[in-house]
Amino acid sequence: MSNMPDITKVFVGAKLPGEIVALARGEARRRGMSLTDFLQFAVQHELERCKARLAPEDAEWLASELRRNIRRREKHVAIRHRA
Question: Is 0.85 surpassed by the pTM of this model?
Fold first, then answer.
């Protein structure tokens, strides 16, 4: 269903300085992207660099957190759509 939430995504709210938001909006516009898509791209790009430096135990912790979040969201979506 197209109106169902993507269970792999989590809402994150953040307060950013106006200058950063203005720069991000401009760059998103230049690339023909939404602000959300651009911020997701920028964060993902930077985190890929961080992942390469993760210790094995940190990588396993990250993978377990992702699995836990997906299970929690699947359960939440199932409960919401049962009614």
Answer: no
